Amino acid sequence: MNIQQIMTTRIVTVALGDRLATVKEIFDRSKLHHLLVVEEQKLFGVVSDRDLLRALSPNIGTISETDKDRAALNKQVHQIMTRKPITLPPEAPIADAVDLLLTRSISCIPVVDAEFRPLGILTWRDVLKALVPQR
What we know:
Blueprint: E1 13-14, H1 20-29, E2 34-39, E3 42-48, H2 49-55, H3 67-71, E4 82-83, H4 94-103, E5 108-112, E6 118-123, H5 124-131
């Protein structure tokens, strides 16, 4: 079995210059934990909900929010993303993906074609779903 059979094909992308306010809105409105950073249809990085949490003040949206807290929402994606993410082609075996997830301590693997265009994303959740029969 290869990763194309279990990867998530519904990916959400952002651009290098998108503001963190946009990323926050996407994460707040979805159950996603990773966004692919794409420019000219090619993958440049990954931004996770944890990256966003580290970049923003916990005071955002509270009575304690300051101008400095709000200013962080104007940072751009390229300032917090993981650059040159570890990727795999769709025909890679699931065992290769599991090995990368374990040895590199990463939580997702973008699946890309030969031109580095994103085709999907693979997470631990995808691997676990493949192991458990659908109900």
